[in-house]
Amino acid sequence: MKMLRSSLLAAPLALLAACGDHPVSSEINDGTFGNATMNNSLLQMGEIDATQALGQRFASEVEPTITFPFDSARLTPEAQRVLREQANWIRQFPEVRFRVYGHTDLVGSAAYNKSLGLRRAKAVVAFFASQGISPSRLEALVSYGETRPVIPVATPEERNRRTVTEVSGFIAGRGMSINGKYMAVVFREYVSGATRVHPANRVIATQVAPGG
Fold it and tell me: Residue 72 and residue 112: Cα distance in Å, rounded?
Protein backbone atom coordinates (compact mmCIF):
# COMPACT_ATOMS: atom_id res chain seq x y z
CA MET A 1 0.00 0.00 0.00
CA LYS A 2 2.87 2.34 0.88
CA MET A 3 4.54 1.59 -2.48
CA LEU A 4 1.31 2.36 -4.35
CA ARG A 5 0.92 5.68 -2.50
CA SER A 6 4.51 6.61 -3.33
CA SER A 7 3.93 5.83 -7.00
CA LEU A 8 0.82 7.98 -7.09
CA LEU A 9 2.70 10.91 -5.54
CA ALA A 10 5.68 10.48 -7.84
CA ALA A 11 3.58 10.72 -11.02
CA PRO A 12 2.48 14.37 -10.68
CA LEU A 13 5.93 15.35 -9.42
CA ALA A 14 7.49 13.84 -12.53
CA LEU A 15 4.95 15.67 -14.69
CA LEU A 16 5.83 18.99 -13.07
CA ALA A 17 9.51 18.31 -13.53
CA ALA A 18 8.92 17.64 -17.22
CA CYS A 19 7.48 21.14 -17.59
CA GLY A 20 10.90 22.59 -16.92
CA ASP A 21 11.31 26.09 -15.59
CA HIS A 22 8.26 27.50 -17.42
CA PRO A 23 5.08 27.73 -15.34
CA VAL A 24 1.96 26.28 -16.91
CA SER A 25 0.34 29.73 -16.91
CA SER A 26 2.98 31.00 -19.34
CA GLU A 27 1.55 28.70 -21.99
CA ILE A 28 -1.83 30.40 -21.61
CA ASN A 29 -0.89 34.06 -21.26
CA ASP A 30 0.55 35.40 -24.52
CA GLY A 31 1.49 38.73 -22.93
CA THR A 32 -1.71 40.57 -23.86
CA PHE A 33 -3.84 39.34 -20.95
CA GLY A 34 -5.46 42.30 -19.22
CA ASN A 35 -4.72 44.83 -21.98
CA ALA A 36 -8.39 45.51 -22.68
CA THR A 37 -9.13 46.30 -19.03
CA MET A 38 -6.00 48.43 -18.76
CA ASN A 39 -6.83 50.43 -21.90
CA ASN A 40 -10.41 51.01 -20.78
CA SER A 41 -9.18 52.24 -17.39
CA LEU A 42 -6.65 54.58 -19.02
CA LEU A 43 -9.37 55.97 -21.28
CA GLN A 44 -11.66 56.68 -18.34
CA MET A 45 -8.85 58.38 -16.43
CA GLY A 46 -7.86 60.48 -19.43
CA GLU A 47 -4.37 58.99 -19.62
CA ILE A 48 -4.91 58.13 -23.29
CA ASP A 49 -7.54 59.34 -25.72
CA ALA A 50 -9.70 57.30 -28.07
CA THR A 51 -7.75 58.27 -31.18
CA GLN A 52 -4.50 57.11 -29.61
CA ALA A 53 -6.09 53.86 -28.43
CA LEU A 54 -7.46 53.04 -31.88
CA GLY A 55 -4.19 54.08 -33.50
CA GLN A 56 -2.26 51.66 -31.32
CA ARG A 57 -4.76 48.94 -32.10
CA PHE A 58 -4.56 49.57 -35.86
CA ALA A 59 -0.76 49.43 -35.82
CA SER A 60 -0.78 46.19 -33.83
CA GLU A 61 -3.48 44.37 -35.81
CA VAL A 62 -2.38 45.24 -39.37
CA GLU A 63 0.84 46.34 -41.04
CA PRO A 64 0.53 50.15 -41.39
CA THR A 65 3.43 50.56 -43.85
CA ILE A 66 4.01 49.65 -47.50
CA THR A 67 7.08 50.30 -49.65
CA PHE A 68 7.54 51.35 -53.27
CA PRO A 69 9.97 50.75 -56.14
CA PHE A 70 12.60 53.43 -56.76
CA ASP A 71 11.21 56.72 -58.19
CA SER A 72 7.73 55.22 -58.47
CA ALA A 73 4.26 55.44 -56.94
CA ARG A 74 3.27 52.03 -58.33
CA LEU A 75 1.67 49.62 -55.88
CA THR A 76 3.40 46.26 -55.99
CA PRO A 77 1.41 43.03 -55.47
CA GLU A 78 2.79 42.81 -51.91
CA ALA A 79 1.80 46.44 -51.22
CA GLN A 80 -1.72 45.73 -52.51
CA ARG A 81 -1.97 42.70 -50.22
CA VAL A 82 -1.09 44.84 -47.18
CA LEU A 83 -3.48 47.62 -48.26
CA ARG A 84 -6.33 45.11 -48.60
CA GLU A 85 -5.72 44.11 -44.99
CA GLN A 86 -5.71 47.78 -43.99
CA ALA A 87 -8.94 48.35 -45.93
CA ASN A 88 -10.64 45.40 -44.22
CA TRP A 89 -9.75 46.93 -40.85
CA ILE A 90 -10.85 50.43 -41.87
CA ARG A 91 -14.26 49.18 -43.08
CA GLN A 92 -15.01 47.88 -39.58
CA PHE A 93 -14.83 51.40 -38.15
CA PRO A 94 -17.08 53.72 -40.22
CA GLU A 95 -16.84 56.52 -37.62
CA VAL A 96 -13.04 56.74 -37.80
CA ARG A 97 -10.88 58.94 -40.06
CA PHE A 98 -7.43 58.05 -41.36
CA ARG A 99 -4.45 59.86 -42.82
CA VAL A 100 -1.80 58.60 -45.21
CA TYR A 101 1.77 59.91 -45.09
CA GLY A 102 3.99 59.58 -48.15
CA HIS A 103 7.78 59.28 -47.81
CA THR A 104 10.78 58.91 -50.11
CA ASP A 105 14.44 58.03 -49.79
CA LEU A 106 17.18 60.68 -49.85
CA VAL A 107 17.98 60.43 -53.57
CA GLY A 108 16.88 63.50 -55.57
CA SER A 109 15.87 67.06 -54.75
CA ALA A 110 13.66 67.91 -51.78
CA ALA A 111 10.97 69.44 -54.02
CA TYR A 112 10.82 66.40 -56.31
CA ASN A 113 10.72 64.00 -53.37
CA LYS A 114 7.91 65.90 -51.69
CA SER A 115 5.87 65.62 -54.88
CA LEU A 116 6.73 61.91 -55.18
CA GLY A 117 5.73 61.26 -51.57
CA LEU A 118 2.40 62.94 -52.24
CA ARG A 119 1.82 60.80 -55.34
CA ARG A 120 2.46 57.70 -53.28
CA ALA A 121 -0.04 58.79 -50.63
CA LYS A 122 -2.62 59.52 -53.34
CA ALA A 123 -2.04 56.06 -54.83
CA VAL A 124 -2.94 54.53 -51.47
CA VAL A 125 -6.09 56.64 -51.16
CA ALA A 126 -7.13 55.64 -54.68
CA PHE A 127 -6.63 51.99 -53.79
CA PHE A 128 -8.76 52.38 -50.67
CA ALA A 129 -11.48 53.96 -52.82
CA SER A 130 -11.37 50.88 -55.08
CA GLN A 131 -12.00 48.81 -51.94
CA GLY A 132 -15.19 50.74 -51.16
CA ILE A 133 -13.80 53.26 -48.64
CA SER A 134 -14.92 56.86 -49.06
CA PRO A 135 -12.06 59.33 -49.68
CA SER A 136 -13.90 61.72 -47.33
CA ARG A 137 -12.77 59.52 -44.45
CA LEU A 138 -9.13 60.17 -45.30
CA GLU A 139 -7.70 63.36 -43.85
CA ALA A 140 -5.65 65.80 -45.91
CA LEU A 141 -2.77 63.97 -47.53
CA VAL A 142 0.56 64.88 -46.00
CA SER A 143 3.93 64.17 -47.59
CA TYR A 144 7.09 64.25 -45.55
CA GLY A 145 9.15 63.75 -48.69
CA GLU A 146 12.67 62.82 -47.65
CA THR A 147 12.60 64.49 -44.23
CA ARG A 148 11.81 61.43 -42.09
CA PRO A 149 13.91 58.52 -43.32
CA VAL A 150 13.81 55.18 -41.54
CA ILE A 151 17.42 54.60 -42.58
CA PRO A 152 19.40 57.89 -42.89
CA VAL A 153 21.47 57.03 -45.96
CA ALA A 154 21.92 59.08 -49.14
CA THR A 155 21.71 56.00 -51.38
CA PRO A 156 18.49 54.31 -52.58
CA GLU A 157 16.79 52.58 -49.65
CA GLU A 158 13.49 50.72 -50.03
CA ARG A 159 12.51 51.09 -46.36
CA ASN A 160 12.46 54.87 -46.83
CA ARG A 161 10.24 54.68 -49.94
CA ARG A 162 6.99 54.12 -48.11
CA THR A 163 3.56 55.26 -47.04
CA VAL A 164 2.23 54.98 -43.51
CA THR A 165 -1.51 54.79 -42.75
CA GLU A 166 -2.59 56.14 -39.35
CA VAL A 167 -5.79 56.76 -37.40
CA SER A 168 -6.39 60.51 -37.29
CA GLY A 169 -9.64 60.85 -35.32
CA PHE A 170 -13.39 60.45 -35.41
CA ILE A 171 -15.91 61.85 -37.88
CA ALA A 172 -17.48 65.00 -36.40
CA GLY A 173 -21.19 65.57 -35.81
CA ARG A 174 -22.12 62.38 -34.00
CA GLY A 175 -23.09 64.21 -30.82
CA MET A 176 -20.89 62.09 -28.55
CA SER A 177 -17.76 62.67 -26.54
CA ILE A 178 -14.56 61.25 -28.01
CA ASN A 179 -14.35 58.51 -25.38
CA GLY A 180 -18.02 57.74 -25.91
CA LYS A 181 -17.34 57.13 -29.58
CA TYR A 182 -14.60 54.67 -28.74
CA MET A 183 -16.88 52.88 -26.28
CA ALA A 184 -19.53 52.69 -29.01
CA VAL A 185 -17.00 51.02 -31.29
CA VAL A 186 -16.11 48.47 -28.62
CA PHE A 187 -19.77 47.79 -27.81
CA ARG A 188 -20.67 47.32 -31.48
CA GLU A 189 -17.91 44.75 -31.88
CA TYR A 190 -19.01 43.00 -28.71
CA VAL A 191 -22.60 42.68 -29.94
CA SER A 192 -21.45 41.54 -33.37
CA GLY A 193 -19.23 38.87 -31.85
CA ALA A 194 -22.00 37.66 -29.55
CA THR A 195 -24.49 37.24 -32.39
CA ARG A 196 -22.13 35.60 -34.87
CA VAL A 197 -23.41 32.20 -36.03
CA HIS A 198 -21.39 29.38 -34.56
CA PRO A 199 -19.77 27.15 -37.25
CA ALA A 200 -21.45 24.09 -35.70
CA ASN A 201 -24.87 25.61 -36.46
CA ARG A 202 -24.40 25.79 -40.22
CA VAL A 203 -27.21 24.38 -42.31
CA ILE A 204 -25.97 21.53 -44.47
CA ALA A 205 -27.75 21.38 -47.80
CA THR A 206 -29.01 17.96 -48.83
CA GLN A 207 -28.31 16.70 -52.32
CA VAL A 208 -31.37 15.89 -54.42
CA ALA A 209 -31.09 13.44 -57.27
CA PRO A 210 -31.65 15.11 -60.68
CA GLY A 211 -34.85 14.46 -62.53
CA GLY A 212 -38.57 14.63 -61.73
Answer: 12
